[in-house]
Write a structure and sequence with these properties.
Collagenase (Catalytic Domain), 3-stranded mixed beta sheet, about 50% helix, 29 helices
Amino acid sequence: MQRIRWIVAAAVLCGSAVSAPAFAAAAAGIDRAGMDTSVKPGDDFNGYANGGWAKTAVIPADRSSTGIFLQVFEKAEKRNAELIRAAAASKAAAGTNERKIADYYAAFMDEAGIQKAGLKPIQPELARIDAIHGKDDLARVLGSQLRADVDPINATNLDTEHLFGLFVTQGLEDGSHSVPYLLQGGLGMPNRDYYLEADKQMAGFRDKYQAYIATQLKNAGIADAQAKAKAVFALEMKIAKAQASLVESEDVHKANNPWPLADFASKAPGLDWAAYFKAAGLDGQKIVVAWQPQAIRGLSALVASEPLDTWKAWLAFHTINHSANLLPKPFADASFDFYGHTLQGTPKQRDRWKRAIGAVNGDLGDAVGQIYVKKYFPASSKAEVQQMVKNILAAFDERVDALDWMTPATKQKAKAKIATVRVGVGYPETWRDYASLEIRPDDALGNHLRAEKYEYEHQLAKLGRPVDKGEWWMTPQTVNAVNLPLQNALNFPAAILEAPFFDPKADAASNYGSIGAVIGHEISHSFDNTGAEFDADGRLANWWTPEDEAHFKAAGQRLVAQYNAYEALPGLHLNGQQTLGENIADVSGLTIAYLAYQKSLGGKPAPVIDGLTGDQRFFLAYAQSWRTKTRDAALRAQVIGDGHAPGPFRAQTVRNIDAWYDAFKPQPGQKLYLDPAQRVKIW
């Protein structure tokens, strides 16, 4: 299911965490040994900054990629493991967060208990599916499975296996209260392109996916597995054809469709919407926003047109598939073989304890987060990052004043938005309360399913209530950052505020080039091709003069053309329109971070360290923060389904910054060189 990027515009490279050898940074904050000075910066700045590292870097067997993000991720993972194991050893009282953390981890690690339980945790749901006798029953089961699908780690994709997904936040035009958004879903592969693209690679994935469906149905002892797998796959092909593309899904104007609940029956006939919404707990709502209206119509029509037995087989498979990682070994192994090995190219499954840490963080994130920040995020780091944020916001404000193409009326609105942005550093002001969530030490899958239901009920409870502008969408132990245009807010979790992104002992040039550029990136999302559609109050409102809007969009299209020219794999080019928002944020964020760095010098020249000027260290720190090496299958998946360009191409963002030309002297005719008039300057 396609993610709508305005919800969470993450600074992360891709959905899966990445791994790397230690970053051998010197006092300058730059890894000199990882550079390849035989490469000309003007031909390939990523190769110049990271080529030495790339020659020897090995992607771990349990990873689809390797790079700087995992160096930081693994530090957080190790800390989380220590905290969770300490909670287990503490013999904390029942009902406390520590006890819930310990019991969740213990249950996940209890492979013998999972094997013994078999299908018992999902047997009631399978029985409900088997008892479906009409389309009204089908609507009720589909509605009861609706969940709040929020995954800010993978900001461009929402891979829900349920027919629809739900997102709850403020209204696009009325920001006074929260409303429900209904989103397309229904696929078992990452997105519609895996079903519809004609190349051999995708055709091979489709064959293996149909075989995988059959395998899981056989594992569950379901009769006629092959025939049912064929029918399920054929249904998903129709679902894929009905879905909107990623680029279409990101057009917020096409998404602004607040439908009265009673109108769904006429606007999207086929599904018994009254039964569906009642089972989903949404029957008391006045409106539901149809984010992809054509897809919702198409999926509803399929409920009516496709055989009931096919839908029952589809529901049975997805119920199994959704829980496969916490079912007995044959289910979990088959799931990894398809999703990890086939689709991502990863040879080996991650160690179970690492998967357990990830699962605890996924379902009890704030409980772990509270302990994490007490131990690992000092007030001094929070204060220093907050000061950097202030400096970069001030630089953005000054940059707006200096824009020669923007009219005073538009500048005034942009500056108002900058002045009111809400920035969260490290952790939220209010923590999630898990008191009502039952966690048992002997029920791994039950714990996860109850946590999903708890999250869904938490989201439903927000409906119709005043919007919490301070709500966080990431936990403190997440290596990522996020912009929330509807809240006009930014979140910078504690775990990303670590070296080499941020090092209190490092030179200012490297800090501004790495975490400063991340901060600038997230601020710039408020002014990318989607964020710029929202005003200072987070409302969908056009605050541009026609002339300024035309200039802004023309600059964006030049950036689209620039990224369209990049070739990730033979014959596979980046989609500049799909990655436009992230690319705007990269160009603008790097521009603003550079200006803030210069301002931090207080008019004094930057020192030369290890033979590198301040500007050279700034741009090298930026490129080295995007150091990445990815398996071909995972790279293909990212290009097709992610709104972020792969790391090596993000490192080349420097070609649009005038100061980079002064620092590294690229020459006309070199591959990255752009004439001044060709350099994209948006903010």
